[in-house]
Amino acid sequence: MSQPLVLKFGGELLEEPACMAGVVASIAEIANPGPAPTGPVAPVVIVHGGGKEIDAALKTAGIAKRQVDGLRITDAATLDIVVAVLAGSINTRFVAALGAAGVPAVGLTGADGSCGLSQVAPPHLTVAGQTVDLGRVGLPAADADVRVLGALVRGHLVPVVASIGVDRGGQLLNVNADTMAGHLAARLGARRLVIAGSTPGVLDEAGATVALLDPAAIARLVAAGTASAGMIAKLRACEHALANGVDDVVIVDGRDRDALRAAASGAVPASATRIAATVGTPS
């Protein structure tokens, strides 16, 4: 299997129909599907989150939202909501829209084929120095079996993975979508991980996009408090992917179709942030 591209989309890009339509149109161009069922489809794996819709569902159910450093503290009731929203409404809606646009998408969670095999996350040491039990939150395992994703890609299909993990006993776990994307990019030997959200890359204290980062620069951003809670989780996922063989990561505004297509093609849009293990020219 040729090295796939892993695309991660934040849930905020999939909430509104107009925004999802733009994302789907971009993916259709990136995947470049040919005549069904065996036409040329670029090797692409998609991971998605759904934070805003989960928040709304929790509010409707009368369950308090609790987060730390961009990670959702997840009890049993919260996990039920997470699974229902991610694997149910968002994943199914996303896959249906991709299919209508000619992308041969297949909806999955990390439980399928154990591609998101995880263990319960240990107590989290926050940036502020506190220790917090995250509950039913998973960290993907290094030996997770990604054969199902490889088989789909080789069959000219596009896996769309909701960020739900599973442990060895069959217990579902809430996995941060950036963490899941970094894990799958590493396990699949991805040529690039593109993380698409609603901001143009990583922003500095002045609100300008940081063009290039390496792990040392990430550490400085986090220590200085410049990175937001949600961005910290993204940066940790980027570090994991880079440490496990992914050439580079690009964080891009997923609402900008030109920037998203450029990042997927191997370029680095001016409005995006490229993260590499060592600072240098784009590969």
Biggest sheet details: 8 strands, mixed
Q: Roughly how many Å is the radius of gyration?
A: 17 Å
Structural class by sheet pairing and helices:
alpha/beta
Helix and strand run: EHEHEEHEEEEEHEEEHEEHHEHE
Number of helices in the DSSP assignment: 8
Q: Roughly what percent helix?
A: 25-40%
As laid out across the biggest beta sheet, the strand order is 5-10-2-1-13-15-16-14
Query: Per DSSP, what share of the residues sits in E-state strands of 2 or more residues?
Result: 15-25%
Number of strands: 16
Mean model confidence by pLDDT: 90
Shape descriptor? globular
End-to-end C-alpha gap: 20 Å
Uncertain residue segments: none
Describe, in plain words, how this protein is organized in 3D:
There is one protein chain. With 283 residues, this protein is of the alpha/beta class. Helices cover 37% and strands 20% of the residues. The chain is built from eight helices and 16 strands. The chain has helices at 17-31, 51-61, 76-100, 147-154, 177-188, 215-224, 229-243, 257-265, and strands at residues 5-9, 44-48, 67-68, 71-72, 105-109, 118-120, 124-125, 131-132, 138-140, 158-162, 164-166, 172-174, 192-197, 212-213, 248-253, 273-276. The strands form five sheets. It has an eight-stranded mixed sheet with strand order 5-10-2-1-13-15-16-14, sandwiched between helices. Helix 1 links the parallel strand 1 (5-9) and strand 2 (44-48). Helix 5 (177-188) runs parallel beside helix 7. The longest helix is centred in the first third of the chain and has 25 residues, at 76-100. It is globular, with a radius of gyration of 17 Å.
